């Protein structure tokens, strides 16, 4: 038999927190090749700050495409389009040509203003009347754009646009300062329900004071946002005029990639941030004043619960307890830890709020229940179980607000590669969880959007039917699920309320 002919190929650039990947997909969802570059340019001028030079990301993008060209030359020459899916809420300001005027401030950066920007007094009265004052203060002091505006006024004055990382990279590729509505997620005055920039007198424009002229042009997802410029083509080796299709944020694409296209299937990301999302045509706010994000599908939204420090906690654990070991041994060792310990970690309960939780700003992380028999194995299991309990809270919240039961869950992110972790999640959620045919679910979701934009599919649903396949399903064990239900209801859910007064004093 002859070699299978593959004609329809696109490339997704998945620009994450730790590194950047280029991934090739065909229109049946097959991952054909990929390359990766790990970032090494982050820096901190002060404690809890995190910045990065723009060229770290751009050179990374060029580098992964060049690696694809070198390693998969035949496939590379068949690329029909590309998209970018980026980490969210990482910002800078640019001049009229799209060139940055300062380095990017990461979403991990925890700098704040000493006090919020002033609002006109009628709005102050309104905020007090509707109980919005604390939220307005939190949004104002935590907005990195405000930090630039206050502490770097000369740069702010020169700036033509405030942009996200995805906007910057799309500008470098196409020459247009534009981005998709689905990628517009962060501390900006954006109306998430209407999927448009807020008007000058909208409450969000009063709280997040970014002038209308500094806001970039919006386009829908699954649309050709532009074409590759000659300069970008010369650097990457891709052809001049290659269509660049708008997709969405990394989380939005990830949700598509695990098949969570309807509200009864959730996408759970076990990544640096741990999140649970669904896709629904109904706009719902899971908590007052916290929006549902625009989905890659133009008529839909992604309500989301986030655990800010998700599987970052596993990285912390490895650094603190296993940093002396050969990195190649750590994955199997952690799997053994889950086998060697019992459900509930012998009474050790972890609350995974290690700071900057949007819905619980005063919360801190805690490990409760230590006794002399506990060791580092129990701590690891408690971390995993605590993340599972926190995500289960999110699942229940989404179900209550959408009035739709979540029947199945697609797992993604680095933590999902562990069979032990996946089974624990199935048992805690008491629902089947699945992985799909590729670990590169953000890339897959971006490829789906690209093929829709190129006209290969009429809709994201049609793309999902053809491109997403379950590869392994983990069903809950009835006995373990019952144990977890008791721990969750009798202990975990009561912890936050009991500890909240102490958190406020820390």
From TrEMBL:
InterPro entries: ATPase_NBD, Carb_kinase_FGGY, FGGY_C, FGGY_Carb_Kinase, FGGY_N
UniProt KW Magnesium keyword: no
Domain Carbohydrate kinase FGGY C-terminal: 268-452
Gene Ontology MF: a single term: kinase activity
Keywords, ordered alphabetically: Kinase, Transferase
GO biological process, alphabetically ordered: carbohydrate metabolic process
UniProt keyword Calcium, yes or no: no
Residue stretches making up the Carbohydrate kinase FGGY N-terminal domain: 10-256
Cited Pfam families: FGGY_C, FGGY_N
Family indicated by similarity: Belongs to the FGGY kinase family.
PANTHER family per the UniProt record, alphabetical: SUGAR KINASE, XYLULOSE KINASE
Name this protein carries in UniProt: Xylulose kinase
Originating species: Acetobacterium bakii
Taxonomic lineage from the root: Bacteria, Bacillati, Bacillota, Clostridia, Eubacteriales
